[in-house]
Write a structure and sequence with these properties.
single chain, 420 residues, mainly beta, 16-stranded antiparallel beta barrel, 17 strands
């Protein structure tokens, strides 16, 4: 969904305001430092008590480790408003029918973060080029206001759903993640994803245990799924029921940067007729029936200065509330990477199994084309070369076995990405 031209004007006005604020503010000595591997204490302490609060003193011997997108936004400035930009360009060779070697321009992601004491306001905007028309569209990916303290926070607006680890660690900044693309399980809704990646509602977090060992519980309520996967309900909901989410995460048990947790999501997807008023198909596989959705997730993530390990598993259960049909889809992926100075070889595997191809929500009309993949097995091997703190080149090979057609889809890509 493309925002109107007024959003673009607002973005330009925001750039102007940020530029004036930075011109009037003292120079930030930490802006050019190794933000990608900052000392964690400097990041978690970035909740000033006022707009003129002094920045925390840097650690004399900072421990190197990678950061998430939101930590980057906090660490790159001492002023009240921060601006971060992420982007990439690539050269791709794909074995898919009709595909030819080509240069590819990735989305330009703009992250604006404002802070005043415990108050935070965040807007993330992506500028994307349409593959067919070449026109540039503006997508508001996140936009929320929140109140954050050491033990409690609440955010209201459009956020990334707190399902698992990957979805909120990297957001839309490709430079932050090790491989070129997100795993297929956590692809965005308009790119063939199967999960509710974005949420419009309220999310609360409670840190039950602080210090070296942390336990955090999260809960959210929001608008549910729309007619299809790529139908985000920004200002309405198709039924009275609201989506519900619960997540529990533990950090620091066994190793300082080790996280593991579980999350779940429940929704009731509104019924749709077999055909629309204009004769087009909407949900011919399961017409006029509510679909109950339950998503369960478990994950483990370790991101140290050298070793990175991330593993997640999702089980998506859909059931017809009247006829009693059931469809279960499993998707799991794992990433392993190890850094040798500026070079980091990495490998990923992902498997999707179950009833995904027969699911009336994922494939409401079997005769229509869809960006969603059915069952598949996939592996990726790549090498990341960090040119400096803010830019990296990734060389990657990814074969995908499509179970239904018994066809191998192979892709090779060289991607130059940055984050500033």
């Amino acid at each position: 969904m493309r925002a109107p031209l007024a959003v673009g004007f607002t973005v330009l006005l925001s750039f102007y305001s940020v530029g004036r604020a930075r011109a009037q503010a003292p120079a930030d000595e930490s802006a050019g430092g190794p933000i990608q591997r900052f000392e964690p204490a400097e990041v978690t302490a970035a909740h000033p008590t006022g707009p003129t609060a002094a920045p925390p003193a840097p650690s004399p011997t900072p421990e190197l480790r990678p950061l998430t997108m939101d930590e980057i936004a906090v660490a790159t400035t001492n002023t009240r408003v921060t601006l971060n930009v992420f982007g990439d360009t690539a050269f791709k060779v794909d074995s898919a029918a009709g595909s030819r070697p080509a240069f590819v321009l990735g989305p330009l992601d703009i992250l604006l973060t404002g802070r005043s004491g415990n108050l935070i306001a965040l807007s993330e905007i992506a500028l994307e080029t349409d593959d067919e028309t070449g026109q540039i569209g503006i997508d508001l990916e996140r936009g929320f206001v929140g109140w954050h303290t050491e033990t409690f926070s609440i955010d209201a607006g459009r956020t990334h759903t707190e399902l698992g680890y990957w979805n909120n660690a990297f957001h839309h900044g490709r430079w932050l993640q090790m491989p070129v693309d997100r795993p297929r399980a956590v692809l965005f809704e308009d790119e063939g994803g199967i999960l509710p990646i974005h949420s419009i509602g309220v999310t609360g977090r409670w840190r039950l245990l602080t210090g070296e060992h942390q336990i955090e519980a999260m809960g959210a309520v929001g608008n549910g799924r729309g007619v299809i996967v790529d139908n985000l309900q920004l200002d309405r909901d198709t039924n009275l029921f609201k989506s519900l989410l619960l997540k529990i995460e533990a950090k620091g048990f066994g190793a300082r940067e080790l996280r593991f947790g579980v999350s779940s999501f429940y929704d009731r997807i509104a019924p749709e007729p077999a055909t629309s008023a204009t004769g087009g198909a909407t949900r011919p596989q399961l017409p006029n029936e509510t679909i109950a959705e339950l998503i369960a997730n478990a994950y483990l993530a370790y991101r140290g200065s050298e070793l990175t390990v991330i593993a997640e598993a999702f089980e998506i259960a859909h059931s017809a509330t009247v006829t009693g049909g059931h469809w279960n889809t499993f998707d799991g992926f794992a990433l392993v990477a190890y850094r040798f100075g500026v070079l980091a070889p990495y490998a990923t595997v992902e498997v999707r199994a179950g009833d995904v191809a027969q699911d009336p929500f994922f494939f409401p009309d079997p005769m229509a084309e869809s960006a969603i993949l059915g069952r598949f097995d996939e592996a990726t091997a790549g090498l990341r070369w960090d040119l400096n703190t803010w830019s990296a080149i990734k060389v990657e090979y990814r074969p995908t076995y499509l179970v239904a057609t018994k066809v191998w889809d192979q892709r090779g890509i060289v991607d130059w990405t940055f984050g500033l």
